[in-house]
Amino acid sequence: VRTRVAIVGAGPAGLLLSHLLADAGIESVVVDQRTREQIESTIRAGILEQGTVEVLDSLGEHSRARTVGHRHDGIEMRFAGEGHRIDFPSLVGRSVWLYPQHEVLKDLIAARLAGGQDLRFGITVNGIEDAGTERPRVIATDADGQPLVIEADFVVGADGSRSVARPVVTGSAFGGYFREYPFAWFGILTEAPPSADELIYSNSPDGFALISQRSATVQRMYFQCDPDADTAAYSEAQLWEELQKRVPGTTLKEGPIFQRDVLRFRSFVAHELRKGRVAIVGDAAHTVPPTGAKGMNLAVADVILLNLALQALLLEGDERRIDDFADAARRRIWKAQHFSWWMTSMLHVTADATDFDRMRQLGELRSIVESEAGQTYLAEAYTGWPLATA
Ligand code: DHB
Fold it and tell me: FAD-binding domain location, by residue (predicted)?
Protein backbone atom coordinates (compact mmCIF):
# COMPACT_ATOMS: atom_id res chain seq x y z
CA VAL A 1 0.00 0.00 0.00
CA ARG A 2 1.23 3.47 -0.85
CA THR A 3 -0.05 6.63 0.90
CA ARG A 4 1.14 10.06 1.93
CA VAL A 5 0.85 9.64 5.72
CA ALA A 6 0.76 6.27 7.49
CA ILE A 7 -0.84 6.63 10.91
CA VAL A 8 -0.35 3.87 13.47
CA GLY A 9 -3.18 3.96 16.03
CA ALA A 10 -6.89 4.75 15.70
CA GLY A 11 -7.25 6.55 19.02
CA PRO A 12 -8.17 10.22 19.36
CA ALA A 13 -4.78 11.39 18.07
CA GLY A 14 -4.54 9.18 14.99
CA LEU A 15 -8.15 9.61 13.90
CA LEU A 16 -8.17 13.37 14.41
CA LEU A 17 -4.93 13.70 12.46
CA SER A 18 -6.37 11.73 9.53
CA HIS A 19 -9.40 14.05 9.56
CA LEU A 20 -7.35 17.28 9.60
CA LEU A 21 -5.04 15.97 6.88
CA ALA A 22 -8.00 14.95 4.71
CA ASP A 23 -9.45 18.45 5.10
CA ALA A 24 -6.18 19.77 3.67
CA GLY A 25 -6.29 17.26 0.80
CA ILE A 26 -3.63 14.91 2.22
CA GLU A 27 -4.41 11.21 2.00
CA SER A 28 -3.57 8.83 4.86
CA VAL A 29 -3.99 5.24 5.97
CA VAL A 30 -4.85 4.56 9.63
CA VAL A 31 -4.19 1.14 11.17
CA ASP A 32 -4.92 -0.19 14.65
CA GLN A 33 -4.31 -3.52 16.34
CA ARG A 34 -7.68 -3.44 18.11
CA THR A 35 -11.15 -4.04 16.68
CA ARG A 36 -13.57 -1.17 16.14
CA GLU A 37 -15.76 -2.57 18.95
CA GLN A 38 -12.83 -2.54 21.41
CA ILE A 39 -11.91 1.02 20.50
CA GLU A 40 -15.48 2.24 20.83
CA SER A 41 -16.14 0.59 24.19
CA THR A 42 -12.98 1.14 26.26
CA ILE A 43 -13.80 3.49 29.13
CA ARG A 44 -11.31 6.34 29.38
CA ALA A 45 -11.34 9.99 30.45
CA GLY A 46 -14.28 12.32 30.28
CA ILE A 47 -13.29 15.99 30.12
CA LEU A 48 -12.65 17.97 26.93
CA GLU A 49 -11.00 21.38 26.94
CA GLN A 50 -12.91 24.10 25.10
CA GLY A 51 -10.27 24.09 22.35
CA THR A 52 -10.69 20.32 21.90
CA VAL A 53 -14.45 20.77 21.42
CA GLU A 54 -13.81 23.57 18.92
CA VAL A 55 -11.49 21.31 16.89
CA LEU A 56 -14.11 18.53 16.97
CA ASP A 57 -16.65 21.03 15.61
CA SER A 58 -14.85 20.60 12.29
CA LEU A 59 -16.40 17.09 12.12
CA GLY A 60 -19.73 18.84 11.50
CA GLU A 61 -22.78 16.83 12.51
CA HIS A 62 -20.59 13.90 13.43
CA SER A 63 -19.41 15.66 16.59
CA ARG A 64 -21.93 15.17 19.37
CA ALA A 65 -19.78 16.84 22.05
CA ARG A 66 -22.10 19.85 22.30
CA THR A 67 -25.37 17.92 21.94
CA VAL A 68 -24.76 14.73 23.93
CA GLY A 69 -21.96 16.14 26.10
CA HIS A 70 -22.46 18.73 28.81
CA ARG A 71 -20.77 22.09 29.25
CA HIS A 72 -19.26 22.52 32.70
CA ASP A 73 -18.53 26.04 33.87
CA GLY A 74 -16.66 25.07 37.01
CA ILE A 75 -15.34 22.43 39.39
CA GLU A 76 -15.44 22.12 43.13
CA MET A 77 -12.21 21.83 45.10
CA ARG A 78 -13.12 20.20 48.42
CA PHE A 79 -10.86 19.96 51.48
CA ALA A 80 -11.16 20.27 55.26
CA GLY A 81 -14.84 19.42 54.86
CA GLU A 82 -15.66 22.46 52.69
CA GLY A 83 -16.23 22.93 48.98
CA HIS A 84 -14.79 25.85 46.99
CA ARG A 85 -16.11 26.45 43.48
CA ILE A 86 -13.76 27.54 40.70
CA ASP A 87 -15.88 29.45 38.16
CA PHE A 88 -14.20 29.14 34.76
CA PRO A 89 -16.14 31.68 32.63
CA SER A 90 -15.73 34.56 35.07
CA LEU A 91 -12.02 33.80 35.55
CA VAL A 92 -10.88 32.96 32.01
CA GLY A 93 -13.96 33.19 29.75
CA ARG A 94 -13.80 29.48 28.92
CA SER A 95 -15.46 26.19 29.89
CA VAL A 96 -14.92 22.44 29.54
CA TRP A 97 -17.22 19.69 28.26
CA LEU A 98 -18.00 16.39 29.93
CA TYR A 99 -18.04 13.95 27.01
CA PRO A 100 -16.44 10.51 27.33
CA GLN A 101 -13.45 9.63 25.16
CA HIS A 102 -15.11 6.53 23.67
CA GLU A 103 -17.95 8.75 22.44
CA VAL A 104 -15.36 11.04 20.82
CA LEU A 105 -13.94 7.93 19.16
CA LYS A 106 -17.36 6.84 17.84
CA ASP A 107 -17.77 10.32 16.33
CA LEU A 108 -14.31 10.31 14.76
CA ILE A 109 -14.67 6.81 13.31
CA ALA A 110 -18.11 7.61 11.85
CA ALA A 111 -16.81 10.84 10.32
CA ARG A 112 -13.69 9.21 8.86
CA LEU A 113 -15.62 6.29 7.36
CA ALA A 114 -18.15 8.74 5.85
CA GLY A 115 -15.17 10.61 4.38
CA GLY A 116 -13.84 7.47 2.69
CA GLN A 117 -10.85 7.08 5.00
CA ASP A 118 -8.71 3.96 4.58
CA LEU A 119 -9.06 2.78 8.20
CA ARG A 120 -7.99 -0.77 9.06
CA PHE A 121 -8.57 -2.64 12.32
CA GLY A 122 -6.85 -5.81 13.55
CA ILE A 123 -3.48 -4.79 12.09
CA THR A 124 -0.35 -5.68 14.08
CA VAL A 125 2.58 -3.38 13.35
CA ASN A 126 5.89 -5.22 13.60
CA GLY A 127 8.22 -2.37 12.77
CA ILE A 128 8.87 0.92 11.02
CA GLU A 129 11.76 1.06 8.57
CA ASP A 130 13.71 3.73 6.72
CA ALA A 131 12.77 6.58 9.11
CA GLY A 132 15.79 8.51 7.87
CA THR A 133 14.64 8.48 4.23
CA GLU A 134 11.80 10.15 2.32
CA ARG A 135 10.06 6.75 1.99
CA PRO A 136 9.51 5.39 5.52
CA ARG A 137 7.59 2.11 5.67
CA VAL A 138 5.28 0.44 8.17
CA ILE A 139 5.76 -3.34 8.28
CA ALA A 140 2.64 -5.07 9.58
CA THR A 141 0.49 -8.20 9.62
CA ASP A 142 -3.22 -7.97 8.87
CA ALA A 143 -6.14 -9.65 10.68
CA ASP A 144 -5.77 -12.75 8.45
CA GLY A 145 -2.06 -13.07 9.21
CA GLN A 146 -1.06 -11.73 5.79
CA PRO A 147 1.91 -9.34 5.53
CA LEU A 148 1.07 -5.66 4.94
CA VAL A 149 3.61 -3.00 3.99
CA ILE A 150 2.58 0.67 3.95
CA GLU A 151 4.97 2.96 2.13
CA ALA A 152 4.47 6.65 2.95
CA ASP A 153 6.00 10.12 2.85
CA PHE A 154 5.66 10.30 6.63
CA VAL A 155 4.79 7.88 9.46
CA VAL A 156 3.00 8.96 12.65
CA GLY A 157 3.01 6.83 15.81
CA ALA A 158 -0.28 7.56 17.60
CA ASP A 159 -0.21 4.09 19.11
CA GLY A 160 -0.47 4.72 22.82
CA SER A 161 1.74 4.09 25.82
CA ARG A 162 3.05 0.76 24.49
CA SER A 163 4.00 2.40 21.20
CA VAL A 164 5.83 0.47 18.50
CA ALA A 165 6.87 3.79 16.94
CA ARG A 166 8.45 5.22 20.10
CA PRO A 167 11.61 3.05 20.07
CA VAL A 168 12.10 3.96 16.40
CA VAL A 169 12.12 7.64 17.39
CA THR A 170 13.96 7.49 20.73
CA GLY A 171 16.23 4.50 20.12
CA SER A 172 14.78 2.55 23.10
CA ALA A 173 11.38 1.56 24.47
CA PHE A 174 11.81 3.64 27.64
CA GLY A 175 13.85 6.58 26.35
CA GLY A 176 12.26 9.37 28.31
CA TYR A 177 11.73 11.48 31.43
CA PHE A 178 9.82 9.37 33.92
CA ARG A 179 8.10 9.58 37.30
CA GLU A 180 6.01 7.09 39.24
CA TYR A 181 3.54 7.75 42.06
CA PRO A 182 2.88 5.61 45.13
CA PHE A 183 -0.88 5.48 44.48
CA ALA A 184 -3.47 4.81 41.80
CA TRP A 185 -7.19 5.46 41.23
CA PHE A 186 -9.93 2.94 41.78
CA GLY A 187 -12.57 3.88 39.20
CA ILE A 188 -16.20 2.83 39.21
CA LEU A 189 -19.21 3.30 37.00
CA THR A 190 -22.53 3.28 38.83
CA GLU A 191 -26.14 3.42 37.78
CA ALA A 192 -27.27 6.35 39.89
CA PRO A 193 -28.33 9.97 39.51
CA PRO A 194 -25.56 12.63 39.77
CA SER A 195 -24.42 13.43 43.29
CA ALA A 196 -23.46 16.98 42.28
CA ASP A 197 -23.94 19.32 39.31
CA GLU A 198 -20.20 19.64 38.71
CA LEU A 199 -17.09 17.57 39.32
CA ILE A 200 -15.77 17.42 42.87
CA TYR A 201 -12.02 17.04 43.42
CA SER A 202 -11.72 16.17 47.09
CA ASN A 203 -8.71 16.04 49.39
CA SER A 204 -9.40 14.32 52.72
CA PRO A 205 -7.31 12.73 55.49
CA ASP A 206 -8.42 9.35 54.04
CA GLY A 207 -7.12 10.22 50.57
CA PHE A 208 -8.37 11.74 47.35
CA ALA A 209 -11.69 11.19 45.58
CA LEU A 210 -13.11 12.53 42.32
CA ILE A 211 -16.87 12.62 41.85
CA SER A 212 -17.48 12.79 38.10
CA GLN A 213 -20.42 11.97 35.87
CA ARG A 214 -21.36 10.37 32.59
CA SER A 215 -25.09 11.04 32.15
CA ALA A 216 -28.33 11.56 34.06
CA THR A 217 -28.31 7.86 34.99
CA VAL A 218 -24.62 6.82 35.00
CA GLN A 219 -21.89 8.28 37.19
CA ARG A 220 -18.10 7.91 37.20
CA MET A 221 -16.21 8.12 40.49
CA TYR A 222 -12.64 7.47 41.57
CA PHE A 223 -10.85 7.12 44.87
CA GLN A 224 -7.15 7.00 45.65
CA CYS A 225 -5.97 3.43 46.20
CA ASP A 226 -2.86 1.30 46.35
CA PRO A 227 -1.33 0.63 42.88
CA ASP A 228 -1.71 -3.11 43.53
CA ALA A 229 -5.35 -2.88 44.63
CA ASP A 230 -7.48 -5.84 43.58
CA THR A 231 -10.78 -4.70 42.04
CA ALA A 232 -12.51 -7.89 43.21
CA ALA A 233 -11.46 -7.42 46.84
CA TYR A 234 -14.12 -4.79 47.64
CA SER A 235 -17.84 -5.34 48.16
CA GLU A 236 -20.14 -2.65 46.76
CA ALA A 237 -20.84 -1.46 50.30
CA GLN A 238 -17.08 -1.10 50.92
CA LEU A 239 -16.63 0.89 47.72
CA TRP A 240 -19.38 3.31 48.73
CA GLU A 241 -17.86 3.61 52.19
CA GLU A 242 -14.42 4.41 50.72
CA LEU A 243 -15.88 7.01 48.38
CA GLN A 244 -18.22 8.57 50.93
CA LYS A 245 -15.62 9.05 53.66
CA ARG A 246 -13.41 11.00 51.24
CA VAL A 247 -16.07 13.59 50.43
CA PRO A 248 -17.21 14.71 53.89
CA GLY A 249 -19.97 17.28 53.56
CA THR A 250 -21.49 15.68 50.43
CA THR A 251 -23.92 12.75 50.48
CA LEU A 252 -23.29 10.48 47.50
CA LYS A 253 -26.27 9.00 45.67
CA GLU A 254 -25.59 5.28 45.52
CA GLY A 255 -26.58 2.72 42.92
CA PRO A 256 -25.38 -0.60 41.49
CA ILE A 257 -21.68 -0.55 40.52
CA PHE A 258 -21.28 -2.17 37.10
CA GLN A 259 -17.65 -1.49 36.30
CA ARG A 260 -14.42 -1.30 38.30
CA ASP A 261 -10.88 -0.56 37.18
CA VAL A 262 -7.53 0.55 38.60
CA LEU A 263 -5.69 3.39 36.83
CA ARG A 264 -1.92 3.50 37.25
CA PHE A 265 -0.26 6.88 37.76
CA ARG A 266 2.75 7.74 35.64
CA SER A 267 4.37 10.86 34.23
CA PHE A 268 6.43 10.29 31.09
CA VAL A 269 7.82 12.37 28.23
CA ALA A 270 9.88 10.73 25.49
CA HIS A 271 13.33 12.26 25.00
CA GLU A 272 12.67 12.58 21.26
CA LEU A 273 9.36 13.19 19.46
CA ARG A 274 10.60 12.88 15.89
CA LYS A 275 13.29 11.10 13.97
CA GLY A 276 13.49 11.96 10.29
CA ARG A 277 10.10 11.16 8.81
CA VAL A 278 8.62 9.44 11.85
CA ALA A 279 6.93 11.38 14.69
CA ILE A 280 5.08 10.29 17.84
CA VAL A 281 2.03 12.00 19.36
CA GLY A 282 -0.36 11.49 22.28
CA ASP A 283 0.33 8.70 24.77
CA ALA A 284 3.07 7.31 22.51
CA ALA A 285 4.99 10.53 23.27
CA HIS A 286 3.90 11.24 26.84
CA THR A 287 1.73 10.09 29.72
CA VAL A 288 0.21 12.21 32.47
CA PRO A 289 -1.45 11.12 35.72
CA PRO A 290 -5.23 11.51 35.29
CA THR A 291 -5.84 14.30 37.84
CA GLY A 292 -6.83 17.34 35.78
CA ALA A 293 -7.86 15.36 32.68
CA LYS A 294 -5.03 16.46 30.39
CA GLY A 295 -4.28 13.17 28.55
CA MET A 296 -6.61 13.26 25.55
CA ASN A 297 -6.51 17.05 25.34
CA LEU A 298 -2.73 17.01 25.11
CA ALA A 299 -2.92 14.43 22.31
CA VAL A 300 -5.23 16.79 20.40
CA ALA A 301 -2.78 19.68 20.87
CA ASP A 302 0.11 17.56 19.51
CA VAL A 303 -1.97 16.64 16.47
CA ILE A 304 -2.86 20.23 15.68
CA LEU A 305 0.84 21.14 15.56
CA LEU A 306 1.78 18.05 13.56
CA ASN A 307 -1.03 18.65 11.07
CA LEU A 308 0.28 22.16 10.35
CA ALA A 309 3.85 20.85 10.04
CA LEU A 310 2.82 18.03 7.67
CA GLN A 311 0.82 20.41 5.49
CA ALA A 312 3.88 22.66 5.13
CA LEU A 313 6.11 19.68 4.40
CA LEU A 314 3.87 17.70 2.06
CA LEU A 315 2.06 20.50 0.23
CA GLU A 316 4.84 23.10 0.03
CA GLY A 317 8.06 21.17 0.64
CA ASP A 318 8.74 23.49 3.59
CA GLU A 319 10.68 21.63 6.31
CA ARG A 320 10.87 24.41 8.90
CA ARG A 321 7.69 23.50 10.80
CA ILE A 322 8.48 19.80 11.00
CA ASP A 323 11.98 20.70 12.20
CA ASP A 324 10.35 22.85 14.91
CA PHE A 325 7.55 20.34 15.74
CA ALA A 326 9.21 18.65 18.74
CA ASP A 327 10.24 21.92 20.42
CA ALA A 328 6.83 23.48 19.81
CA ALA A 329 4.99 20.41 21.16
CA ARG A 330 7.25 20.17 24.21
CA ARG A 331 6.35 23.68 25.37
CA ARG A 332 2.75 22.61 25.98
CA ILE A 333 3.63 19.05 27.02
CA TRP A 334 5.73 20.25 29.96
CA LYS A 335 3.10 22.78 31.05
CA ALA A 336 0.55 19.97 31.06
CA GLN A 337 3.02 17.68 32.83
CA HIS A 338 3.47 20.29 35.52
CA PHE A 339 -0.28 20.90 35.89
CA SER A 340 -1.07 17.16 36.12
CA TRP A 341 1.71 16.57 38.66
CA TRP A 342 0.62 19.65 40.66
CA MET A 343 -3.08 18.71 40.80
CA THR A 344 -2.03 15.19 41.78
CA SER A 345 0.41 16.21 44.50
CA MET A 346 -1.90 18.92 45.89
CA LEU A 347 -4.87 16.58 46.26
CA HIS A 348 -3.51 13.12 47.16
CA VAL A 349 -2.27 11.82 50.49
CA THR A 350 0.95 9.82 50.69
CA ALA A 351 1.65 7.25 53.39
CA ASP A 352 4.94 8.90 54.35
CA ALA A 353 3.47 12.42 54.69
CA THR A 354 4.40 14.10 57.98
CA ASP A 355 2.08 16.41 59.95
CA PHE A 356 4.01 19.28 58.40
CA ASP A 357 3.35 17.95 54.88
CA ARG A 358 -0.37 17.62 55.63
CA MET A 359 -0.67 21.18 56.99
CA ARG A 360 1.42 22.59 54.11
CA GLN A 361 -0.90 20.87 51.62
CA LEU A 362 -3.94 22.57 53.17
CA GLY A 363 -2.05 25.87 52.97
CA GLU A 364 -1.39 25.21 49.29
CA LEU A 365 -5.07 24.46 48.62
CA ARG A 366 -6.10 27.64 50.49
CA SER A 367 -3.62 29.73 48.56
CA ILE A 368 -5.43 28.64 45.38
CA VAL A 369 -9.10 28.83 46.38
CA GLU A 370 -8.76 32.04 48.43
CA SER A 371 -6.91 33.93 45.70
CA GLU A 372 -8.24 35.12 42.37
CA ALA A 373 -4.74 34.74 40.92
CA GLY A 374 -4.55 31.15 42.20
CA GLN A 375 -8.00 30.26 40.90
CA THR A 376 -7.18 31.87 37.57
CA TYR A 377 -4.08 29.72 37.08
CA LEU A 378 -6.08 26.58 37.81
CA ALA A 379 -8.94 27.65 35.50
CA GLU A 380 -6.55 28.61 32.68
CA ALA A 381 -4.73 25.27 32.80
CA TYR A 382 -7.88 23.17 33.30
CA THR A 383 -9.82 24.74 30.42
CA GLY A 384 -6.67 24.61 28.26
CA TRP A 385 -4.04 26.98 26.95
CA PRO A 386 -4.57 28.40 23.45
CA LEU A 387 -3.97 26.00 20.58
CA ALA A 388 -1.89 26.73 17.50
CA THR A 389 -4.10 28.10 14.73
CA ALA A 390 -1.73 28.72 11.84
C1 DHB B 1 -12.56 12.37 34.65
C2 DHB B 1 -11.25 11.94 34.72
C3 DHB B 1 -10.28 12.81 35.15
O4 DHB B 1 -9.00 12.42 35.22
C5 DHB B 1 -10.58 14.10 35.54
O6 DHB B 1 -9.61 14.92 36.00
C7 DHB B 1 -11.88 14.52 35.46
C8 DHB B 1 -12.87 13.65 35.01
C9 DHB B 1 -13.62 11.42 34.20
O10 DHB B 1 -13.29 10.30 33.82
O11 DHB B 1 -14.80 11.80 34.28
Answer: 2-339
